[in-house]
Known about the structure:
Distance between the termini: 21 Å
Radius of gyration: 16 Å
Number of domains: 1
Number of strands: 8
Largest sheet: 8 strands, parallel
CATH superfamily: Aldolase class I
Helix content: 40-55%
Structural class: alpha/beta
CATH class: Alpha Beta
CATH architecture: Alpha-Beta Barrel
Number of helices: 10
Amino acid sequence: MDFSEALRTERLVAIIRGRDAEASFRTVMALAEAGLPLIEVSLSGKDALKVIRRARAELGDAAWLGAGTVLTGDDARRAAEAGANLIVTPGLGAGLEESVRQGLPTLAGVMTPSEVIAAEALGVSALKLFPASAGGPGYLEALRGPFPELPFVPVGGVDAGLAQAYFEAGAVAVGVGSPLVGDAADGGDLDGLRKRAAEFRAVCAR
């Protein structure tokens, strides 16, 4: 299954940005075990490349394991070397361009129509509407007016209730960080994480 198909099937990208590398790794594994196969580890988290490398070794080649907050070409190269097979950026720039050049699936951060046009011209896999909280589901609905066929993935402040609203506004998937992960990636509660994972899976399965 390619990334675009996986995104439309699963409808959820779990985002980990942890202050504790060991806890971040455990969080990746708990999410995978909970049946959430699209996982992004933000490079702004503690020892993120080591977390990606270790998780890749555990999960095998087939798993979707992304690197997030990719800003530079060097970020993209190092993420790929660590085993990331998905690159997520907060915006347009050198990191995105290098990821596309390498042929990696990309989720490109956009907010405005001009950025959507620029990202689409690069040949990205999907469009990360970020920060989605700035405009909400209504903004996504308006943005889809001129771009009805493009795959948008709202990220930023998306809880389970808002996820449903974004799907109704036309999102193909949502990206979710703290409303799903909570404090798990900082050494917190994995049982709570598993419970929230089940709640999000239920919303995404509707």
